[in-house]
Design goal:
Number of helices: 12
Order of helices and strands: HHHHHHHHHHHEEHEEEE
Shape: elongated
Distance between the termini: 50 Å
């Protein structure tokens, strides 16, 4: 800690609100990402950062220069405990594919369910956070640790296992520092990490077990995304089928149903494309979006008799071997958080 930083910390400890704000605001985005990984909700992560700063202000005199904590680590300790408090009183966040068997191709759309659904995260909030190979002291922004598949898998862990996995494997903290933050032993941390990794191995897609620092969709993925978007704009069932893997799956929170396999997905979407079907939705416009560092698209629909294309869904894609392996489709109420207009 430099002399200027020590002076700022000393002023904050003495009650200088401006100095305190300067200290904490530089960590806002990485703390929000940490909380999002812990709880799986953008709204909750925003609230948890505010709660972290409030707790830090109230206990500011407890932060000293004894060498046990950096200011950043101290904030992570407070944020993690705030997440534990939320997780102790709320159910884990889910996708429909974690709740039961897939739905039939001809099954009607079920009503939305009031469940704690996993939510998406805007890429714009990751600006300024560097991947580990450039600035290892900053929070890791490895794409595989932000994708929906990873978030869904870590929600299956206990809160302690989740925290240990994030601190050790995502943020690259040592076992000793992680144990200190969690007020536990190194042996306990190592045991929790081993169990967490075993759970991920069972639930993560095979190609997401080896993480790297890739931050953006590849050129090949962008081509596949464009083909997916074009298929909807042309209402082309054949083109949609061609871009999907045979084993593709689709989740549609807040609807408590999911589709397994290309045939089921295409059969369901074909009804929305067909003007003669009672399930016909209208014409489509699709624009590229930026969510969870995955290939993403925002869908707008102009229903029969209407003049505007209205926000419909935000789709996040997982692409493997040149085809769409998984679609996670979120409702239009997330558009505002992504800076997407309600109409086109």
């Amino acid at each position: 800690m430099t002399g200027d930083e020590q002076n700022t910390v000393a002023a904050a400890r003495a009650g200088d609100a401006a100095a305190f704000t300067r200290l904490v605001e530089r960590h806002r985005r990485e703390l929000q990402l940490h909380c999002y990984r812990m709880v799986g909700s953008l709204d909750d992560s925003e609230d948890l950062v505010q709660e972290t700063f409030l707790r830090a202000w109230r206990s500011r005199t407890s932060f000293g220069f004894n060498g046990r904590w950096s200011f950043r680590a101290w904030l992570y300790r407070i944020a993690t405990n705030a997440c534990f408090d939320v997780l102790a009183r709320t159910p884990r966040r889910v996708l429909a594919s974690q709740l039961g068997p897939p739905s039939d191709a001809d099954a009607p759309i079920q009503p939305p369910a009031d469940l704690p659904w996993l939510g998406p995260y805007p890429d714009r909030l990751l600006d300024g956070l560097a991947p580990p190979d450039t600035q290892p002291d900053l929070a890791v922004v490895a794409r595989e640790t932000i994708e929906i598949a990873f978030l869904a898998a870590i929600q299956l862990l206990t809160p302690k296992q989740r925290a240990v996995l994030i601190l050790r494997d995502v943020l690259a903290w040592s076992a000793k520092d992680t144990a200190a933050l969690l007020d536990t032993s190194v042996a306990s941390v190592n045991s929790a990490l081993q169990r967490a990794r075993a759970t991920l191995e069972r639930h993560l897609p095979r190609r997401r077990l080896e993480w790297d620092s890739t931050a953006d969709p590849s050129a090949e993925e962008r081509v596949v995304l464009q083909r997916f978007m074009d298929a909807f704009e042309r209402a082309d069932v054949g083109a949609l089928a061609a871009v999907l893997r045979e084993d593709a799956r689709a989740n549609m929170p807040p609807y408590p149903m999911w589709h397994d396999g290309r045939h089921t997905i295409v059969t369901s979407v074909a009804k929305a494309f067909d003007p003669a079907s009672p399930a016909y939705l209208g014409e489509w416009r699709v624009v590229e979006a930026h969510a969870n560092l995955q290939p993403s698209a925002a869908f707008y629909v102009r229903r029969p008799g209407e003049g505007e294309f209205r926000a419909f869904a935000l789709d996040l894609l997982r692409i493997e071997d040149g085809g769409v392996a998984e679609i996670t489709s979120f409702p239009a109420d997330v558009f505002e958080a992504f800076g997407l207009p309600p109409v086109l």
